[in-house]
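Can anyone check this?
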Amino acid sequence: MEFTIRRDYFINQLNDALKAISPRTTLPILTGIKIETKENEVILTGSDSEISIEITIPKQIDGEDIVTIAESGAVVLPGRFFVDIIKKLPGKEVKLSTNDQFQTLITSGHSEFNLSGLDPDQYPLLPEVSREDAIQLSVKVLKNIIAQTNFAVSTSETRPVLTGVNWLIQNNELICTATDSHRLAVRKVDLEEDSENKNVIIPGKALSELNKIMSDSDDDIDIFFASNQVLFKVGNVNFISRLLEGHYPDTSRLFPENFEIKLGVNNGEFYHAIDRASLLAREGGNNVIKLSTGNELVELSSTSPEIGTVKEEVEASNVDGGNLKISFNSKYMMDALKAIDNDEVEVEFFGTMKPFILKPKDDDSVTQLILPIRTY
């Protein structure tokens, strides 16, 4: 194998491939990046067996030469170490050449490194995902979906299905749900007609890594599902993740029919008031803020026995219903408000000990649900 590549472009692609590599893997070869050259392209692969990232580098991009391929072949090189070398090389271009024993010579400017590579045939094959039955979203919408749901997945492995986001496709609608059993985030998106019904659980960790390698663009991303894998294809990147096994709990019954109290608040004002009140709540070690409604004002308060008390008032618009006192986790509330891209937020309360709901005004595509905290 022998090729020469523009170093700056190579670094960006290697960094993305590296996002799939975990130092804690049980297969030593998976700490490496597989580099394969074909007639017209170089393919980089990183994997930790849970997620795999495959990046295709063409010879030219927009008429500009990126890679010159002298000889096709493949090698697996130690991931992080190899990327560190490429980052520190002096030249604008890097040349890689391997021999039959997978010894790899890396040259750039006046620098020369010799690395011991591994046999690419020992590298696990990527899972096959059928390219039929795709759904298509814009990258912006997908990044938005991840931002509005992924924060609510569970970090505890006691219920593995809750560490993922449930993607339910039915009646040409995609419903994404995440919960850690203390809070719940739902985002709905209308799809093109004739989308096949699906019900899968995508690991939150995979969605988080996918989000990092997608640039904010107007490109479309194709999403393909297999029995236990999902493939996201955008531009020159294939991102494959294992799906979580198990049944996601039915969360639809958590949404009560009729609210007792409904109020509108300005998202920014409400967020910053909670942020200030949470300074004391965090010192108290429990993040608890008390909220009471009355007339046109919402009062937020928190107490730390060692430090003192804080009281914030936020004006509410169109208050519907009576008075209520409720306590909640300030971090959950701030996460929920951050996930709503709207200046006006509606909050619906169903009782002191029942979950309450936040959503954008006049918009049902995003719903955040939070369990209150019992305080005495």
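Reply from J.R.: I decoded it. The chain has three domains: 2-122, 135-231+239-252, 255-370.
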